[in-house]
Fold:
Amino acid sequence: MDNKEQQSNGITLSDIWNAVKKNWIVMAIIVIALTLIGTIYVKVGKTPTYSASSSIIVQVPSNASSTSTSTDSISITDSIRYVYTVSDLINNKSISNSVAEKYNETHEEGITSSFVKANTKTSFTTNSLYLTIRFIDTDRERAVEINNLITDAIVAMQNDGDETTTDDLLCYITATYRPQTIADTAYVGPNVLLYVIISFLGGCVVACVYAFIKEFMSTKFKTKDEIGSIGYPIVGLQYDKKEKGKNPGQDLVDASIQSLDPYNKVLNGIKYSDFNKDIKSVMVTSTGADELKSTVVANLAFCAANNKKKVVLVDLDVRKPRQHQIFNLNRKEGIVEYLDGEISKEEVIKKTDRGVDVITVGKNITNPMVILESEKLKELINELKAEYDYVFVDTPPLLVCSDALVISKMVDGVIYNVAINQAKKKETREALKTLEDVEANVVGINITKYKAISKKDYYYYSYKYYNTNTEANEENK
Structure:
């Protein structure tokens, strides 16, 4: 048995890679969708902001410090200190109050001092006399105007030579640059590239979380290994051929080697499951509906008949019978009529062109347990075992009703269908536990609806093998 078939003790890199390969289309859609959403949001949902900047130079006159021993050196040092002072003052509420009042005198917008203060930024280089004033706003014209008002307000506070003015700064402030029009503003944000990158990375995270939850936190069986961990041997595997809208009469496969090979494997599993016991009567059931139990049991019967075995198929899914549809037979004159004594055993057995004898359900009955617990039914199955090589029985799903449990005591073995990506782990284990409780002989698990994830799967090799042989045979003719 190769590593793929062994039960995994944890999530490996191979498991993660397979999860990505299986879900890459959805993952790609998630990444693209979230990236587009982020891009659209930053383009449409976020309002662009702009900054208007002005530059000023702060200088302290040489005579401002009477105790200076080196006039030029101290004036430069004091000027640098004043740059810090002016920067703090610009961000002070007194400036923002005066600017807000000045602006509101000519505009009806009614901006607040807090708005001015929050959007005013200053910057300077260490040991530099230059100070940059920036005002950030979504309105470019307003940004220019308020920036200039702030510049005017701070310039107006410089030392004008009037020694009686106590509010003046003991320095000279000169505006070296002012914005004139909206063309002098600079785009500030939002950062479109940053939003796109964040949206893309966020999409990758969401896509990975989706794949992880879907593959590793699912309540359903996702892999053969998970099904194998139940504890029963896997006797068969049917691939999902994605045949939608299929009619019941199309459920039977053709008589080719490729089509019958999966069912031959199940027959071999039945034959060699117990060397001490000859298993002739076999029922097929599942946990819930739509796990292909009726299709599988019909094809098992057809495959055995194709192998020159004498086969009879008994439809005991009284509540929802399908075998009469699959084999294109009349439902009536079936098991119900036979158990009621209305017809004989010879009359209840219907011949088909597939080499399989079929016993249909018959007429509707309100209480199926009446016939399932009938001693006459047990006797019929025993008589059929004596006359046929195989007796296959179609039963209802285990969680739908208790019919399958009753029937399991009448047959030699049980094939249990598990549909991958559909059957739930807890429910399947509970259903199998009920079979164990009645001491039914579960021959093994038959996996249905299996999706090939790579060309290394068996189906690929068998297809290539059979077709290569066919081509060689054609050439030799």
Q: What stands out?
A: The mean pLDDT is 84. Residues 224-476 form a domain with the Rossmann fold fold (CATH 3.40.50.300).
